Amino acid sequence: MTFRKQLAAAQVIAVVRAAVIPDAAALCAALAEGGIHWVELTCTTPRVTEQLARAAAAGTGCRLGLGTVLTAEQARAGIEAGAEFLVTPGCRPPVAEVARAAGVPVVLGALTPTEVAHAVELGADAVKIFPARAFGPGYFRDLRGPYPEVPLVASGGVDAASAPDYLAQGALAVCAGGEVVPAAAVEAGDWAELTRRARAFTTAIGAGPA
Length: 210
Description:
Elements: H1 3-10, E1 12-16, H2 24-33, E2 38-42, H3 48-58, E3 63-67, H4 72-81, E4 85-87, H5 93-102, E5 106-110, H6 113-121, E6 126-129, H7 138-144, E7 152-154, H8 163-168, E8 173-176, H9 183-188, H10 191-204
Parallel strand pairs: 1-2, 1-8, 2-3, 3-4, 4-5, 5-6, 6-7, 7-8
Helix pairs in contact: 2-3, 2-10, 3-4, 4-5
């Protein structure tokens, strides 16, 4: 199955931003129990590649990615730690180059039609529209006109109430941030709460726990 088909089947990527992640493997297991099987740890978390490596070694059943990747060095470190995909907040040619060389899928960030075209030229496996809330779900319908074959991911300000509309208007998948993985719950290791939030989100978009 191609990356695009896998992402379309998943529908949701949980984006984790926290000052501390006490146990990334347990975090992933909690999200998976709630029906979210793609997890993006971000470079804004100190020593994130160590947690990524631990989670990858634990075999959580989740697809693990590294996000907020800005440099080639971060990309290489993430891949070495076991990242199965990379995500950037904007078009980052050095990151795309590292990903292509390693054969690892990359989701490049963009906002404007010109940036979407640039991300495609750089070899993006999907394009993350960020911040999605700047224009709303209807913007995805507009982008589908000139870019009908480009896999688009909605990120930034997407919640359970708006996620179904983003998907209906042309987003291949959505990123779930603070509503599903609030920093306080992550840092406290409140895995039951994360499971509850993940289940509520997947229920809202019509995708129950697998």
